[in-house]
Amino acid sequence: MMSEPVKGSCLCGAVKFSAPLKNEHVDACHCSQCRQWGGGPFMNVMAAEAPVFEDDTHLGVYESSDWAERLFCKNCGSSLMWRMKSNPDMVAIAAFAVPLSEQADFRLQVFTDSKPAFYDFANETRKMTGAELTAAFQSGESVS
After folding, report:
1. pLDDT digit string (tens) for 23-44?
2. Are 4 and 21 in contact (CB under 8 A)?
3. Which of 109, 111, 121, 138 is deepest in the core (most CB within 10 A)?
4. Strand ranges for 20-90 from DSSP E
5. Can you tell me the distance from the alpha carbon of 47 to that of 127, in angstroms, rounded to the nearest whole number?
6. Closest Cα partner for 47 from 14, 79, 87?
7. pLDDT value at 1 more than 60
């Protein structure tokens, strides 16, 4: 885990937050909700604990399923985070909403069984289907 929280924001700067990151491993989610939400796969880094917001006036929360929420800026529309309802510390932060070092690396792709055939990433990563990811969550396995 990185010890110092990183500071992040949406595109317009109306939503500012800080959070320590577990690491700088970037993941991509290819599920249909992430692709529709952001116009492509959701590239993210995992928070080590729930982010702290400077001011949540412009923070929107969309309940996207029985078990998860998506956070966004109500002013500029930036897709910022995905979080688990039952575990507020399980938060995937948009990788480009926070500064990452040159050591950041692309490690994991999830919902690969939902990925359209018209794109692929060149990076070699661990790949998990939706069922594999759900099983990992249920068993408590760390995937990132």
Report:
1. 999 999 999 999 999 999 999 9
2. no
3. 111
4. 25-29, 42-46, 52-53, 59-63, 68-73, 79-84
5. 20
6. 87
7. no
Tokens of 100: 């990452």
pTM of the shown model? 0.93
Please report which confidence band the pLDDT of residue 3 belongs to, taking 50, 70 and 90 as the band edges: low
How many angstroms separate the CA atoms of 57 and 39, rounded? 25
- d(CA 62, CA 26) in angstroms, rounded, equals 23
The total number of residues written for the chain in this structure: 144
Q: Which domains are assigned to the chain?
A: 6-115 (2.170.150.70)
Radius of gyration of the chain, Cα coordinates, nearest whole angstrom: 14
**Which residue in 85, 51, 45 sits closest to 68, CA to CA?**
85
